[in-house]
TrEMBL record:
Domain Ppx/GppA phosphatase C-terminal: 317-493
Lineage: Bacteria, Pseudomonadati, Pseudomonadota, Gammaproteobacteria, Alteromonadales
Record-linked Pfam families: Ppx-GppA, Ppx-GppA_III
SUPFAM superfamilies for the chain: Actin-like ATPase domain (SSF53067), HD-domain/PDEase-like (SSF109604)
Protein name: Guanosine-5'-triphosphate,3'-diphosphate pyrophosphatase
Organism: Opacimonas viscosa
Record keyword rRNA processing present: no
Length: 510
C-alpha cells in the first residue's frame, strides 16, 4: 500500500470532549461519533480534591487552585485537535461556593483555551440524569443518585426526562473534612455524619417519596466503590443497606483511616470512602431505597449527549447491539435466527413459571444476538472470548449488572456446565439466569446447521413443556430424519443437563 493510500484508513466522524471540574476529581472524556454510534476513546481522571481547599469563609486556597491548574494543563494537550464547538467544560459545587472562583476560572480558561461554565446544582442534576439515561436505559420511573465531592444530586425521572431533582449541599470531601478530619473511624463520627446527612435530605424527601420508582441507579463514586468491593467478595448482587452496614462496621473496626483495608476498595477512594458511605446510608434510610445498581454514565456523559442532539439515540440498547454486530463481525442472519427461536421458547417457558420480566427478556435477547461475538478470535473457546469481550466492552444502555449477566449467559451457552452455576448472584436471581441459559443453549443447538427457519410458523411447531427441572422439547414428526446433527447435539445436551441435576427430553409428535 502506498503512503497516500493510508488516508483511506482514517476514521470518519467527529470527536467530542467533555471536561468536568468536580469537587473531588477533574474528569476528561473524549468520544468518537460515527453514524450515530458513540464510542469512548479516552478517559482521564485526576484527584484534585478542590473542596478540601475551601475555608470557613468559602475562600479557595492557592494550593487547591494550583492542583487544579496543573491538572488542566495536561487536559489542554488532549483537547488541542478537537473543534472548540465540540468541547464543553463545566465546574460544579466547589466553584459554585468559592467566593474567589473567578480567580481560578481566569487562569483555567487561559490554560484550556476554552470557556468554563459554572453550572447550578439543578443544571448539574439534569446533566447527570441525561448521562445516566443515555448510557443505562431506565425502566419506568428511576431514581438516580450522584455523590460528589461537595454536593449530592438526586433525580427522579422517566426514560430521558427528569421529573423532580435536587442538589443537596453535602459531599464526600466536605463530609470527610467535617466529620472524619482527624482520621478516626468510630461509631460517634459515623452517627454524626449520617445524622447530618439525614437533616439535609429530610426537608426535601417527600418530593421523592411521593413517586414510585422501578429502579435506583448510582452514578460512579461511592456506589461504584461499594460494587467493586462486593464483586471482589464474589457477590454480584445490587447495593443493599445490609451490605453497607457491614462495610460501616469494617470501617469502625479499622479505627483509623490509615488502617482501613477493605478488599476491593481502591486506594484512591480509601480516604473519602467513609464519608461517602455515611451519605449513601442516610439516602437509603430517608428515601426508603431497597437496592441500587450502577449506572453507565454521569455528568461527563450527560455533557457529551447534550452536544449530540442531532444523533439518533432513541434506542440505545438496539444501537449498542447493532454496533457490536458490525464491530465484531457477527453473522447477523444466524444471530437473528437464534434470537427468534430463543424468544419463542422463552414465551412458552413463561407459561410455566413467574420468573419472566421485561429485564429477563432483554438479557436473553442481547445474549442471543451477541452469543457469537468471540468467534472472530477463534472457534474452540469462542464462548469464553465472547464473555471476556462483553465484560470489558462499554455496552451503552445496560447497567453493569446487566452487562455481567449477558456475559455469563454467553460464557456458558455451549460445552459443559459447572455444578455451581450463577452462585455469585443473589438467590432470587439464580433461577432466572439458569432458565434463560437453558433456553439460549437450546436455541443455539437448534440452529447449528446455520440455515435458519423458513418462517415464524415453523418456529411455532417446536413445543416446550416444563415440569419442575424437566424440560420436554417436541418437534414435528419426521424432524429427526432431516436434522441428524441437531439430534445428536440435543442428546449431548440432555447428558450435560443431567450432570447438573436437570432433565431434557426430546421427542416428535405422533
Amino acid at each position: 500500500m502506498r503512503p497516500d493510500e493510508l488516508t483511506t484508513l482514517q476514521p470518519k466522524g467527529e470527536y467530542f470532549a467533555a471536561v468536568d471540574l468536580g469537587s473531588n476529581s477533574f474528569h476528561l472524556v473524549v468520544v468518537h461519533v460515527q453514524n450515530g454510534n458513540v464510542q469512548i476513546i479516552s478517559k482521564v481522571k485526576q484527584k484534585v480534591r478542590l473542596a478540601s481547599g475551601l475555608d470557613d469563609d468559602m475562600v479557595l486556597s492557592t494550593e487547591a487552585m494550583e492542583r487544579g491548574w496543573r491538572c488542566l494543563a495536561s487536559f489542554a494537550d488532549r483537547l488541542k485537535n478537537i473543534p472548540s464547538a465540540n468541547i464543553k467544560v463545566v465546574a460544579t459545587a466547589t466553584l459554585r461556593l468559592a467566593v474567589n472562583a473567578h480567580d481560578f476560572i481566569l487562569k483555567a480558561e487561559d490554560t484550556l483555551q476554552h470557556k468554563i461554565k459554572i453550572i447550578s446544582g439543578e443544571e448539574e442534576a439534569k446533566e447527570i440524569y441525561r448521562g445516566v439515561a443515555f448510557t443505562s436505559t431506565t425502566v419506568g420511573n428511576s431514581l438516580v443518585i450522584d455523590i460528589g465531592g461537595a454536593s449530592t444530586e438526586v433525580v427522579l425521572g422517566r426514560d430521558i426526562l427528569p421529573i423532580h431533582l435536587y442538589s443537596f449541599n453535602m459531599g464526600c470531601v466536605t463530609f470527610m473534612d467535617r466529620y472524619f478530619a482527624d482520621g478516626k473511624l468510630n461509631t460517634e463520627n459515623f452517627s454524626a455524619a449520617i445524622a447530618a446527612a439525614k437533616a439535609i435530605i429530610e426537608p426535601n424527601a417527600n418530593a421523592f417519596l411521593c413517586f414510585d420508582w422501578q429502579m435506583c441507579l448510582g452514578a460512579s463514586g461511592t456506589p461504584q466503590a461499594i460494587t467493586d468491593i462486593l464483586i471482589s467478595q464474589g457477590n454480584r448482587d445490587a447495593i443493599k443497606l445490609s451490605y453497607m452496614k457491614d462495610l460501616l462496621q469494617l470501617c469502625i473496626d479499622a479505627k483509623h483511616i490509615d488502617s482501613l483495608n477493605i478488599v476491593g476498595l481502591a486506594e484512591s477512594r480509601r480516604v473519602i470512602f467513609p464519608s461517602g458511605l455515611a451519605i449513601l446510608i442516610a439516602l437509603f434510610e430517608v428515601l426508603n431505597i431497597k437496592e441500587m445498581n450502577i449506572a453507565g454514565g454521569a455528568l461527563r456523559e450527560g455533557l457529551i449527549y447534550g452536544m449530540l442532539d442531532n444523533q439518533p439515540l432513541d434506542n440505545r440498547r438496539q444501537q449498542t447491539i447493532t454496533g457490536c454486530i458490525k464491530r465484531f463481525h457477527i453473522q447477523s442472519d444466524q444471530a437473528r435466527s437464534v434470537t427468534q427461536t430463543a424468544l419463542s421458547l422463552y414465551a412458552q417457558m413463561c407459561q410455566y413459571n413467574d420468573i419472566c420480566s421485561l429485564d429477563a427478556r432483554t438479557l436473553l435477547y442481547t445474549a442471543s444476538m451477541l452469543h457469537e461475538i468471540g468467534l472472530h478470535i477463534e472457534y474452540k473457546n469462542y464462548h469464553l472470548h465472547g464473555a471476556y469481550i462483553l465484560e470489558h466492552t462499554a455496552l451503552e444502555g445496560f447497567t453493569k449488572l446487566q452487562r455481567q449477566c449477558v456475559a455469563e449467559l454467553v460464557k456458558y451457552h455451549r460445552q459443559a456446565l459447572p455444578a455451581e452455576l450463577f452462585q455469585d448472584y443473589p438467590s432470587e436471581t439464580q433461577p432466572t439466569l439458569a432458565a434463560l441459559l437453558r433456553v439460549l443453549r437450546l436455541a443455539v443447538i437448534i440452529h447449528n446447521k446455520r440455515n435458519g427457519h423458513e418462517s415464524l410458523a415453523e418456529l411455532e411447531k417446536i413445543k416446550l413443556d416444563i415440569a419442575d427441572t424437566e424440560w420436554t422439547l417436541t418437534f414435528p414428526e419426521g424432524w429427526g430424519k432431516e436434522n441428524k446433527l441437531v439430534e445428536v447435539e440435543l442428546a449431548n445436551e440432555s447428558w450435560l443437563q443431567y450432570k447438573i441435576g436437570n432433565k431434557l427430553l426430546v421427542k416428535e409428535t405422533a
